[in-house]
Amino acid sequence: MRGGGEEGDRRYPPTQRSGVLGDAYAVDTGARDQTPVLALGLRGIVKTYGALRANDGVDLTVRWGEVHALLGENGAGKSTLMNVVYGLTRADEGQVIFDGQPVRVSSPTDAIRLGIGMVHQHFMLIPTLTVAENIVLGHETARRGLIDLRAACQAVTELAAHHGLEVDAGARVADLSVGLQQRVEILKALYRGARLLVLDEPTAVLTPPEAERLFEVVHQLTASGRAVIFITHKLGEVMAVADRITVMRRGRVVATTSPGESSPSELARLMVGRPVLLRVERGEAHPRDPVLRLEDLTVEDDRHQVAVDGVSLEVRAGEIVGVAGVEGNGQDHLVEAILGLRHARHGRVLLGSRDITRDTTRRVLIQGVGHIPADRHAAGAILDLTVADNLVLSRYDRQPFARWLIRQLTAVLEHARRVISAFDIRAESPAQPLGSLSGGNQQKVVVARELDGDPRVLVASQPTRGVDVGSIEFIHQQLVRRRDEGMAVLLVSSELDEILSLADRVAVMYRGRLVALLAGDDIESERIGLLMAGAA
Amino acid sequence: MSAAAGWLRGLLLPLVSVLLGLLAGAVAVLLSGTSPIDAYVALFQGAFTNTNAFPETLVSAIPYVFLGLSVAVGFRAGLFNIGGAGQLFAGGICAAFAGYRLTGVPAAVHLPLALLAGMLGGFVYGAIPGLLKARFGAHEVITTIMLNYVAANLTDLLVNKGPMSDPHTGSPQTPQMLLSARLPIIVPGSRLHLGLFLAILVVPVVWFLVERTTIGFRIRAVGLNAGAARAAGISVGWTMTTVMGISGALAGLAGAVQVLGVSGVLTPSLSSGVAFDAIAVALLAGSNAYAVLPAALLFGALKSGASFMQLQTQVSADLISIVQAAVIVFVAAPLLVRWLFRLRSVPAAPVSITEGGLGQAPPREGVA
Predict the structure, then answer these.
(1) How far is Cα A161 from Cα A456, in angstroms, rounded to an integer?
(2) Please, which residues bridge with residue A257 across strands?
(3) What are the start-end ranges of the H helices in B32-139?
């Protein structure tokens, strides 16, 4: 969509609104008078959803030329705040000042016109179009009603070269790696003249080397005078990339600081509101017999491409085996094959001495496999059902939760009360819909359900994704405790920190293959990071 | 929010939708040059106060109960069964066959048997699209529509000089049902039959099935989140097949009740749009089994009052189609109704922008 009449003849490079410098790509840093003008000033932003005050009087100042990290747990109000800035929601109260001017941002179109760009966590790209087409979409240069693709390609290539964001302008987006797709998103924002760039959890989908590269890009952007707001909940990242840090908790700003003045544990304390163990205490593992064995397992994806390529792995009772890897390297398919959610094309899955390769999911679960699915919303739980129902989701038809075909609701509620208190789940009542709980508590329900069934082996896939630091601590402690009690745990995680702090042995997956199996002192962050990126 | 308040809130939307639907109908009547008040008074008289009007309204409401439940059960599993017409025919064919061919059986056995035959016919006919969806991913909306044609034409084939036709009449129909298979009349002088009790009885049964049994739990789990249901070991395909079968059985029961209670014969006009209206009944009821009862009564009343209204005021009986359609539009577009009446939250106040100082406020340091 074109930005209206006055933008009708807008051409690349985008016009800078607040001043023209020699360099077409540089940004007016606002040094027009003595007092430096701020890139963004938020004053007393309030946004409520029903009874929830998602933003409760938030003040924020972002200077030109700085990377400003916005740190907070899920539900702290970071996304709401940025949606206000980007015009996706309207604040109930408060004031937005951009580049020294009070502004009214009531839609993303307004935001883009002002020079505010946003890269969402889930990319807004059209996979079948080329890089150049995606970037110029909505701001196309037309010649006699036709899009001038050559001009678009050239413009994009120039822009990319200038910012050191090399990417093949003619490539189809679908063929690009996730890291490159993100680069396209950043270019798209820059093409539209973004001077303030909001990056929403940008490293969630990146390999460690890709993340490093992103940090460089971010610093380049700020060096040219732009401002970057970096939303994250990862503490290490904040320390590495930020110039200043604003920490939010429960809709309020609790602190503004900088990496030099703070530390990861201090930031964690600010985020959670109490001291947090960043790394769970964990003694030596005492592994016993193998419980879960994968033998030369090969699995295809929906398009019959090999997604898991001859993986053999053993998980013993009393140990946590971590499967590290960037998302999309076959881990999901591996887990699905173990659970009977997907057929293995080749190879075997053994539980103890039993071959469960061809068993239905139901049979697999009954025989003692617990499963924490990677995607809580799509597979882990049913938000519209009650907490109690979710706690028996895989056992709803067994004693004592059902007799014959009749559900025994008293037993279900009784069970829920017990589990809720045992796992410290913050719920008002077992009969409330799961969706009304916080993300962390929802995940605790899933974890509690699986652990309560006392499985012989637990397949935990991204067990702490989208979960607050406090709940992460709890879930990690639970996993270690169960390990010590003799449970076999297969931990699949794309969070390197999680693997490092929990796993006794680490299998690294890259493009469907198990590229390394590390133990002891070999479990070391840099090495795993390289393996994850395919550098063996 | 207390349970009662939530319940009332749930009631508000359908009630408002019905009123808006009647209002839309009134506008149509006004445009045709008649007084809407006269039309609605006649409609009311024709549905409730005239001689035998209320029993007749109930007669019309009975199939809506079964069919409304049929659609509602499908909705709970996230399936849109618009094959009610076909399943109704399947049930009608089976019930009719049992009703006139089974001789020498006492009513206490014959009637239940004929009803059961109808349910079975509907079950099988409903399970087919369920199975097709589970096995091949064929969308149930497409397959059920197609199967509607199949069933309607099959009925025609059977009763129009076919193997089930009555050799003694020229018209396309089966022989009369035996008395032992007929649903007895419960209000003398009217057409109101025992099917009323059956309809009232089946509502709590369906409610219990959905809300209190393991099958119902599976149905709801699949409907709310098929992915999570699958991960929890619930067979999604099997559940879809079962729920389509159950939905079909309820539609088949409607067919059986119409044949055994009202017409006494099976004719190709058995469905006559009632199955499609039932989609509206289920929507209005929000797929709640108990709410199907009042919704069915409303639709029954509209249907049975329409002809008297036409007779009395020259307003076409088609008016009720307008009312029904408008009701559905409002039910299906709750946001529209909320907006019209400013129900629930008032839109957020616009961001207040004041002239402010530029960056005077020092950034907060430390814990605020």
Answers:
(1) 54
(2) A245
(3) 36-44, 53-76, 84-101, 107-136
Question: And the tokens for A245?
Answer: 């840090």
**Weakest mean pLDDT among A333-342, A380-389, B358-367:** B358-367
Chain A residues inside the 8 Å CB shell of B220? 385
Residue A271 main-chain phi, psi, to 5 deg: -65, -45
Note the ipTM here. Answer: 0.85
CB pairs under 8 A between A and B: 139
With CB atoms and an 8 Å threshold, state whether A379 touches B350: no
Helices within A224-297 (DSSP H only): 235-241, 264-272
CB contact under 8 A, A371 and B231: yes
Q: Using the beta-carbon criterion (under 8 Å), do A59 and B234 form an inter-chain contact?
A: no
Tell me if B214 and A402 make a contact (CB, 8 A cut-off). yes
Q: Find out whether A372 and A460 touch, Cβ atoms under 8 Å.
A: yes
Between B233, B349, B356, which is nearest A95 by CB?
Answer: B356
Predicted confidence band of residue A439 (pLDDT cuts 50, 70, 90):
confident
Nearest to B227 among A43, A378, A397 (CB): A378
Task: Enumerate the residues of chain B whose CB falls inside 8 A of the CB of residue A394.
Answer: 232-233
Rounded-to-integer distance, Cα A11 and Cα B198, Å: 72
Percent of chain A with pLDDT over 90: 58
What is the separation of C-alpha B104 from the centre of its chain, rounded to a whole number of angstroms?
35
pLDDT digits (tens, 9 = 90+) for A343-355: 999 999 999 999 9
Residue type, A291: V
Phi, psi of A99 (to 5 degrees): 50, 40
Tell me whether residues A373 and B228 touch, CB distance under 8 A: yes
The β-bridge partners of A403 are A406
Q: Are the Cβ atoms of A382 and B229 closer than 8 angstroms?
A: yes
pTM of the model: 0.79
Q: Is B366 in contact with A381 (Cβ distance < 8 A)?
A: no
At B206-218, the pLDDT tens digits run 999 999 999 999 9
Instruction: Tell how far CA B82 is from the center of its chain.
Output: 10
Helix axes B319-332, B3-31, angle to 10 degrees: 140
Determine how β-strand A67-72 pairs with β-strand A244-249: parallel
- Taking the C-alpha atoms of residue A11 and residue A500, their distance in angstroms, rounded to an integer, is 49
DSSP 3-state of A459: strand
Mutate to test the interface with B, among A70, A382, A445 (most CBs of B within 10 A): A382
| Residue of chain B minimizing CA distance to A91 | B351
Q: How far apart are CA A489 and CA A370, in angstroms?
A: 9
| Tens digit of each residue's pLDDT (9 = 90 or more) over B48-71 | 999 999 999 999 999 999 999 999
